[in-house]
């Protein structure tokens, strides 16, 4: 196997697609040991290990504002608590909680490759005796069998740029009802989908025709929402932000799995292309993170751009309504038509 590149890649991808993808890690290590310093085999190993692995983990770890907010909030709250880290990824938040004085940290990660790597990271940092890593989704954990009767703190970072798409609502609702003690704390405490009117380059529409062929029937499969970096100078806010949806993870009441809302966004005046959408995360009352336009270049969550059908001029005080709908895994936003 380790002399035939095609056989190694084929077998490696089969392992990744199996029920035991974590076994690709020792397979990759053996390949590197058989071909030390060989750049082709390094690339082959990367090809196998990164197959269907989300690409945003590295960017997330570079987000200094996010990392600092979690660190500060955990230093304020984790001491003496039994903590569950949902979606641990690299193990970073679990290690932050342990360093902040948590009594014990349970960390879960659905991707077995990431869970195996997180164990290695945690061992390298001397924290294996204080952090237990489960290669499972949090909804497959047992309060009694896995968590010693339940945790009194849940920390998570399972947010997408629209807040909802990574399944934060059902995961935290399940954690509260099935994995926690009655008085458990959630970190972050709250989060919201924020919006404001903005001017930005209008997304280019897909072509109607290419090389003489009519492609208009496929247009319906192309979404109208675009994205931009928080640091993009071409996105200019034209009014104050408002929350379209707000979620309180600490409340005893159930998190809403579906909902709809409309917000009126006021303009400061000027040309409008539509609205910008970002997320606001409140860890504690004095630790808040936002990735809105004007943020740092290392922020990994993108800003959503919801365009009007065409740009429009506005006067100060003009209002424009936007509607939104969500379920447990999806969010959609559109300009309201009176």
Total strands: the figure is 17
Question: What value does the average pLDDT take?
Answer: 93
Please, how many helices? 8
**If you compute it from the alpha carbons, what radius of gyration comes out, rounded to the nearest whole angstrom?**
23 Å
Strand and helix order: HHHHHEHEHEEHEEEEEEEEEEEEE
Percent range of helical residues: 25-40%
The biggest sheet, with number of strands, parallel, antiparallel or mixed sense and barrel status, is: 7 strands, antiparallel
Helix/strand-derived category reads: alpha+beta
Q: Which ranges are low-confidence, i.e. pLDDT below 50, for 5 or more consecutive residues?
A: none
Name the shape in a single word: globular
First-residue to last-residue Cα separation: 65 Å
Strand content: 25-35%
List the helices and strands and how they pair.
Elements: H1 5-17, H2 24-34, H3 39-49, H4 57-62, H5 64-77, E1 82-86, H6 92-99, E2 104-108, H7 112-124, E3 131-134, E4 151-156, H8 168-179, E5 180-187, E6 190-199, E7 209-210, E8 213-214, E9 226-228, E10 236-237, E11 242-248, E12 259-266, E13 270-284, E14 287-290, E15 303-314, E16 319-326, E17 331-335
Parallel strand pairs: 1-2, 1-4, 2-3, 4-5
Antiparallel strand pairs: 6-10, 6-11, 6-13, 7-8, 9-15, 12-16, 13-14, 13-15, 16-17
Helix pairs in contact: 1-2, 1-3, 2-3, 5-6
């Amino acid at each position: 196997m380790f002399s035939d590149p095609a056989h190694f890649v084929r077998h490696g991808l089969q392992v990744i697609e199996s029920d035991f993808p974590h076994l690709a890690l020792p397979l990759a290590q053996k390949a590197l040991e058989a071909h030390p310093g060989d750049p082709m085999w390094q690339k082959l190993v990367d090809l196998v290990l990164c197959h269907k692995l989300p690409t945003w983990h590295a960017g997330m770890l570079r987000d200094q504002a996010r990392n600092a907010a979690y660190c500060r909030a955990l230093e304020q709250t984790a001491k003496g608590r039994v903590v569950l880290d949902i979606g641990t990824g690299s193990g970073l938040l679990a290690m932050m909680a342990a360093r902040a004085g948590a009594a014990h940290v349970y960390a879960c990660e659905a991707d077995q490759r990431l869970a195996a790597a997180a164990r290695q990271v945690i061992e390298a940092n001397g924290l294996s005796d204080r952090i237990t890593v489960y290669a499972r989704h949090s909804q497959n954990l047992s309060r009694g069998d896995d968590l010693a009767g339940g945790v009194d703190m849940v920390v998570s970072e399972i947010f997408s740029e629209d807040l909802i798409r990574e399944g934060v609502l059902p995961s935290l609702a399940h954690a509260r009802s099935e994995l926690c003690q009655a008085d458990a704390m959630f970190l972050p405490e709250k989060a919201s989908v924020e919006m404001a009117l903005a001017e930005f380059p209008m997304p280019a529409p897909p072509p109607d025709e290419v090389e003489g062929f009519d492609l208009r029937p496929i247009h319906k499969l192309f979404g109208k929402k675009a994205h931009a970096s928080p640091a993009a100078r071409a996105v200019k806010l034209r009014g104050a932000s408002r929350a379209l949806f707000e979620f309180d993870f600490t409340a005893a009441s159930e998190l809403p799995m579906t909902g709809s809302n409309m917000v009126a966004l006021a303009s400061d005046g000027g040309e409008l292309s539509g609205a910008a959408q970002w997320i606001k995360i409140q860890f504690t009352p004095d630790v808040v993170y936002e990735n809105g336009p004007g943020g740092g270049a290392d922020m990994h969550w993108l800003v959503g751009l919801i365009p009007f059908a065409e740009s429009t001029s506005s006067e100060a005080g003009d209002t424009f309504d936007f509607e939104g709908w969500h379920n447990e895994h999806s969010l959609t936003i559109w300009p309201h038509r009176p």
